[in-house]
Each structure stands twice: as C-alpha cells, then as structure tokens.
Write a structure and sequence with these properties.
Length: 577
C-alpha cells in the first residue's frame, strides 16, 4: 500500500541519519576504529532518561490507544494506523510514565502503522485518540428466489386488480399544456402512371396538415388540404377539364373557453360523431359526467360540400344532435358509446332522417365493437338499415389472437365518377387467427365470404399466413401468404413481403405478389411488385419513395400475344413540426 511504503521509506531514512554508536573502550597502544552505523537501532541497556521499553503491540489493546514503536530526532513511528481508526493530520498528545512527553502530527498511514512528525519523542511513549467509526459489516443477502417462486409472484401481480383513479384538478388550477411531437406537416409530392393500354400521366401536389395548433390557450386550429396540378393526362375521366384541383377536407377552429364547453366552426370534420360527414358550419358541445362516465353532448349543423370536389354548395346540408359516453369497467376494462340523430338533404336521396349508434367494449381478453346506421324518408320512403358492422377480437392466451367481423350494406348510393358506380346492397364476413409460439415465428390464417344482394354473386376465400418477424434480427422480417378463392370469380393468389430497417432513419418495404383468375373460360395470371423507402433526413425533414408495377399474361394465349402492364411511381418530401 502507498501509506505502508511511505512509512517504511521514512524509517530507512531515519536510520541512515541516526548518529553512530559510541566507540568501544580503547586498549593501550591500540588505534581508535570507527564503528559503522547498524541497519537497525543498537540494543543497549535502558536508562532512566530513556523511559520504559516499548512493549510488543497487543492484539487485544483497546481501540483508540497506541505507542511509539521507534523514534528519530524529527519523527516518531507509531504502532497504530488507518484500520485502527487513526486519521492523517491528527495531532496526538504523547505521554511518558504518565507525564506529558510532547505532541506530533500524523503524516502518513499504513493499515497498522503511521509516521508522525514531532521532536523529543521516544520509543514507548503512549497516546490516545478518537478512532473513526468502524465500517458496518456487509450483511449477507439471502439467496435469490427460484424460478417457481418468481412465477408465483408474477401470477399474483398479474392477477391483482388495479383500480382506476379519476384525476380531478383543484378548482381554478390551470391545466399544463400537453406536448405534441408534430403539430403541422407539409409535403410536396410527384406521382406518375404509365400503362401499355394508355399513355403516361403525372401530377404534382402539395399537402398540408395541421393538428390542434394552439393559437391561444383556449383556441386551436385544424387544417387538412391538398393542391394538385396535372402535368400530363391521357384520356382523363375524373374532372377532365380541371388540370388544377384544390381539396379542402378540414379548416376548423375549436374554442374551449372552459372545461365544460367546446365550440367548433369552419369546415368541420366531426370524427367523433358516427355517420356524420364534413360540413361547413358549427358545432357546440358540453362535457361533464353522467352516471359515473365521462359524457359529451351537443348540436351541429351546416352545408355539406360536394363529395368529389369538396367545393362549397347549398344543395347539401345536415343538422342534428350527438352524444358520447366513455367509462371504465374496472381491471383495465373500458367502454364507449356514441350516437347521432340528424336530418340530411342530398340531391340523390332527398331530405331524410338518419340515426347512428355505436358501442365498444375493451376487456383484458376480449374487444367488441358494433355500429348501426338507419335512415328513412326522402325519395325512397320507409326506414331501412343503411349499414351495420360488428367486430370482435379475442386473446384467450398470450400469443394467440382470434378475430372476425360482419358487415352489412343496405343503401345504394350513386357515385359521381365516370363511369358511374353504385355500391350495391351486400353482406360480408371474414375472420382471422394469429399465433406466436415463439418470438421469431407467427402462423395464422384468414378466410371470408361476401355476397352482392342485388346480383346474387358470391365470393369466398381462405388461406394461411406465415410470419418470420425476426428473420433479419431486430431490424426486419418476412411475411408469406396464400389465398384460395372461389365463387363467381375463381382463382388463387400469393404474396411475400419483406420489411427491413437497416438504419434507424431508414425503413424499406418490398412486396411481390401473384394472382390467378379463372372466369368465363379464360385463365389469366398477374404478377406485381412494390418497393418503398422512408428516410428521416433530419429532425423535421423526411422523404418517401415508392415504385409499383404489375403485368398480366394469359398462359393459353398464342405466342406473340401482348402482355398488358402498368407502373406507378411516387415521391414526396415532407417537413413536420
């Protein structure tokens, strides 16, 4: 140890500086010869002035006591050190035969020895000092619990109920603003299409999205808009005379002057009102509590813009009331219920009454969702179920997921596209299963059925899926799927999709697909590819690029037949703040 080495070196230096022993008595006619300095103190008979001899250090000596083991003219070497509680810099009072003998200052320390600077000290001088507190002995920890005990504790914690506690701010307390990672996003994009049966078309667009931008502590702004410019168009069918197009889906101001009142005006996108559409007008709602649940109710109304151009018009309008209920069921479960009652005027259906009702329940192992939309009056008269949907997902054990849905469409709504399309009355159902036996493997399957009630045409499909989510480690994986289809359009299809994130700021997706259709005595195969990349160029800047293509061929066609194909390219650079 450095302290012990310093003490030893100091002792050697002191010995070297000690005076030579007295010369021996001379015999007659014999020259005097000097005696060399010994390597250790010369033992001699004690005298009264020397004091008592230094006794051997005892292991049972009281803590906080010590004595001089050896002394020089300027330094004393003690038999107590750091592990005995002696501290560097301590000033010691030494005694000899009960009387004061002097003092010294501790210079350096070894575990059980020390060097102390002082004069007039001798071996055997004693001293007392206040020792430092002994370090507490480390307690031996019990052995860690075994796997069975850990599993038991985990089961207890998992099964324990965690009651929800509603937060209630103190009266007059200001709510802290919620930080938002992105308030606005602006993107500039370019998209091009080419096909063997048509020419090339391309367009440039600018998209703007603003989400709850705070204009004042009580006022926010939401905007969702796009401006397009068609550079080339080959045989256009949708808005053929409009090379420049502007779409505005939302331009909404929302005021919350208090915790209970909510007001919105402008082009309102009522995403929380089931069955409602975009309208130019206003919305007023009141928030509170009803039967232990969070509640909101209000009224809305305004003119509905044209569905294809989003241009303002007075031919379409809507107005009515809505409500939202949201509550907890305990143990991590919750429920939500929404409703709407409104009058709607459209050129296609006339003026009719509509109602919408939704309900959702989220349990630990089961999620249920249902919604229904009814309408009556107008050009058709009577009351009908316009649409309905039921969804369910079940997690019976960890790693296993089951799900399914049923959909009903009962309202034939003429679309304004050319050629016109009428979404017919139809019913459809589908289901899926997914199982993760290990972290790197996912197996599952999907199947479904659909029927067009107007034409009676039916279609069925079923097939397996295989996922390798950790094929590329933590950076990506592979998914494979296959479907066998039957009905009015028989066929089959397969796909392979690879997701890869080689860098934290770069995400790549590749997909290849194949499909085979057999209808009306004609076999037709089609292949498709898709490649896309998303890169973060900085904290607020990003880039998206994608390229997709597909081609069809008839295996039974004569040699030299054409192979129709099409390709689409898309690139956008966006900034988010």
């Amino acid at each position: 140890m450095p302290g012990a080495l310093a003490v030893a070196l100091a002792a050697l230096a002191a010995l070297a500086a000690a005076p030579a022993a007295a010369p021996a008595k001379q015999r007659p006619r014999r020259p005097v010869r000097a005696v060399s300095t010994p390597a250790a103190p010369v033992a001699r008979s004690p005298s009264a002035e020397d004091g008592p001899p230094a006794p051997a250090r005892r292991a049972d000596r009281p803590r906080g006591t010590g004595q001089v083991a050896y002394a020089t003219a300027s330094r004393a070497y003690l038999d107590a050190g750091a592990e005995d509680g002696l501290a560097a810099g301590a000033v010691l009072e030494l005694r000899r035969s009960g009387a004061p003998a002097g003092r010294c200052t501790v210079e350096s320390l070894a575990p059980h020895h020390a060097a102390c600077a002082g004069t007039g000290l001798r071996a055997g001088d004693t001293f007392r000092f206040e020792p430092a507190a002994l370090a507490a002995e480390a307690k031996q920890l019990p052995p860690p619990p075994g796997d069975a005990e850990l599993a038991r504790r985990l089961a207890v914690v998992t099964a324990a109920a965690v009651p929800q506690v509603e937060f209630r701010a103190a009266p007059g307390a200001a709510s802290a603003p919620v930080p938002r990672s992105r308030t606005a996003e602006v993107g500039a994009s370019y998209q091009a299409w080419t096909a063997s049966t048509a020419g090339t078309s391309d367009r440039a667009a600018i998209d703007l999205a603003i989400r709850e931008a705070e204009l004042a502590p009580w006022l926010t702004l939401d905007v969702d808009a796009r401006a397009e410019r068609w550079l080339r168009r080959d045989a256009p069918r949708f808005r053929p005379r409009d090379d420049t197009q502007l779409y505005l889906w939302q331009a909404q101001l929302t005021a919350t002057p208090g915790d209970a009142l909510r007001l919105s005006a402008g082009r309102v996108l009522p995403w929380a009102i089931p069955g409602a559409t975009v309208f130019d007008g206003g919305l007023a709602g009141v928030r509170g509590r009803l039967l232990g649940a969070r509640a909101e109710g209000g009224v809305f109304g305004g003119a509905v813009p044209e569905p294809d151009t989003t241009g303002p018009t007075t031919r379409r309008a809507t107005g009515g009331a809505y409500w939202i209920l949201d509550g907890a069921l305990g143990r991590g479960a919750s429920w939500r219920q929404e409703g709407r009652i409104a009058m709607v005027r459209t050129p296609e259906l006339g003026t009719r009454a509509e109602g919408s009702l939704t309900g959702r329940v989220f349990l630990r192992r089961l999620d249920l969702s249902a919604e229904a939309h009814v309408g009556g009056g107008g050009n058709r008269g009577g009351t009908d179920l316009d649409a309905a949907r039921v969804d369910a997902s079940l997690r019976p054990v960890d790693g296993l997921l089951l799900g399914g849905s049923f959909r009903h469409a009962g309202l034939a709504w003429p679309q304004t596209f050319d050629p016109a399309a009428f979404p017919g009355r139809a019913r459809a159902a589908d289901g899926f299963v997914s199982w993760d036996p290990v972290r790197w493997l996912r197996v599952g399957g999907t199947g479904g059925f659909s029927r067009d009630r107007s034409s009676g045409l039916e279609r069925r499909w079923v097939g397996p899926e295989l996922g390798l989510p950790r094929l590329l480690g933590a950076s990506g994986g592979l998914t494979l799927g296959y479907l066998e289809e039957s009905g009015w359009l028989d066929g089959r299809s397969a796909y392979a999709q690879l997701l890869w994130r080689p860098l934290q700021a770069l995400r790549l997706v590749g997909r290849a697909s194949w499909s085979h259709d057999a209808a009306f005595g004609v076999d037709r195969d089609e292949v498709g590819v898709l490649a896309s990349a998303t890169a973060d160029l900085g904290r607020h800047l990003g880039l998206r690029i994608s390229l997709a293509g597909r081609g069809a061929f008839d295996p039974a066609a004569e040699e030299g037949g054409s192979m129709p194909y099409g390709m689409t390219g898309f690139a956008t650079i966006f900034a988010a703040y």
